Amino acid sequence: MNKAPVKRTYSKLPVWIVEDHHDVVPHIYRSIASRYVPMSGVKMVHLDSHPDLLIPVNMPATAVFDKERLFRVTSTDDYFLSDALYLPAEQLEDAKPLHLRVIQVDPVEMSHNSQSQNNPSTCKRLRGASKGELNKEEDRQPESNVSCTSQYQPSGGSSTPGNSTEAQNAEEGSSGAIVSNLLSLIEQNDAYILDIDLDFFSCKNPFKDMYTKEEYSILQELYSFKRPREDVDEEELLECVERRTRQLEDLEAAFADLLEDDGQETVDRLATNPGMNSLIKLVSSLKNRNQTPDYEMVHQAGLTCDYSELPHHISSEGEIQQLLLAVKLVLQSLPKPTIVTISRSSLDEYCPAEQVEAIQSRTLSVLEALFGSLDVHKEYESASEECTSQHS
Fold first, then answer.
1. In this model, does residue 111 exceed pLDDT 50?
2. How far, in Å, CA of 28 to CA of 82, rounded?
3. Are 380 and 274 contained in the same domain?
4. Position with higher pLDDT, 252 vs 164
5. Is residue 75 part of a domain?
6. At what angle do helices 353-371 and 317-331 cross, to 10 degrees?
7. Residue 308 resides in a domain
């Protein structure tokens, strides 16, 4: 009879803290290489205000066989899924589709029911950085299968009296229900990764600070997207994807033209394209505030607008404390993680810079209270020092 493999554990729980979320990936890979985390069937508890479930647009399927190539194309909004797709050569003979089970937590609903109308976008764009690119290939993208459970919220969340569905959702959103779901996936002897983005506790949409309300409204109009019905057939779905791809490519080309020349003649010519008439008003407003607008950043902001927008809720001290308590209640019922990765997300302003230090300190206190001594690596400090020395 084959014995189950012995689970390797670190003497102290390693906690890797980075600034940009995708920078945790090499530390995860290092744990896999040293056999603390398994090569396949990796389990992760991912706390984040953004799902990070995208795949780079220009990533060919062959990229999943080369982790260094994946590192180059991975960015904040897609690291989670694209790097989960990495497939070592020895697994080719037994390749399986990727299966994800996602438990969604809506911390805003906890005390601000009115803001729960806006579904969080799946996309988070890194400010001031462009995504890595690969040559387009005809390879078929790897098959993936993502199944999501119902919306959950932490213990102590609001429960609205009304129909039985709402009451059932409130009960399902308790810490006990979340733990039950997680324990159906993670057994006591399993190695797993605890991955925390600090914007889970307090989250900004940084583009709302960069643009006026009118400019942001124009971007939402330009980049608007009508999602397909749930019962749509494959042919209609493909047509929808092709339509959206063309729309985004046209908008990217338009803002690239504006980078070269944003004179009135260029603006008028671009505005004749279908759906781009509002470019005239947008460019005029941008240039009234700044004679040389960053049109690449404008496009990045537009990419976050489809049928929803990025989550935006700067939490109060009480709300942060309540979320930390909810996380503690969930984690204390789970086995000890093998490795913890934490993203600050403050330089790109998804987590408010004025709150990130306090949130980080309190998160570490929760982890230490639950799991004992920590081996904390503040990688963002060394990265900042390296950047400073390069510019000195």
1. no
2. 14
3. no
4. 252
5. yes
6. 30
7. no
Give, in degrees to the nearest 5, the angle at Cα 100 between 95 and 102: 175
Q: What digits encode the pLDDT tens for the residues 42-64?
A: 888 888 888 776 666 667 777 76
Structure tokens, 315: 């939490």
Q: What mean pLDDT do residues 265-282 have? A: 95
CA 369 to chain centre: 27
- What confidence score (pLDDT) does residue 107 get? 53
* Residue the block writes with tokens 């102290």: 12
Question: Angle formed by the axes of helices 213-222 and 279-289, to 10°?
Answer: 150
Q: How confident is the model at residue 24 (pLDDT cuts 50, 70, 90)?
A: confident
Say which residue, 297 or 65, is predicted with more confidence: 297
What values do phi and psi take at 285, rounded to 5? -65, -45
Domain termination site, one of 267, 302, 337:
302
Residue type, 210: M
Answer yes or no: do 344 and 280 share one domain: no
Residue 65's pLDDT is what?
A: 72
Are 52 and 181 within one domain?
Answer: yes
Checking if the pLDDT of 69 tops 50, the result is: yes
Q: What angle do CA 122, 125, 131 make, to 5 degrees?
A: 115
72 and 220 in a single domain? The answer is: no
- Residue 293: give the domain boundaries: 209-302
Closest CA to 140 of 80, 64, 243, 247: 64
Question: CB-side exposure of 150: number of CA atoms within 13 Å?
Answer: 14
CB atoms within 10 A of CB 373: 9
Where among 252, 279, 302 does a domain terminate?
302
Give the C-alpha separation, 188 to 352, whole Å.
35
Q: What is the pLDDT of residue 41?
A: 79
- Quick one: CA dihedral 257, 261, 262, 266, positive or negative? negative
Residue 367 confidence class, pLDDT cut points 50, 70, 90: very high
Phi, psi torsion values for 8, nearest 5 degrees:
-85, 140
In a domain, 96, yes or no: yes
Please state the pTM of the whole predicted model.
Answer: 0.73
Distance CA 122, CA 339 (A): 25
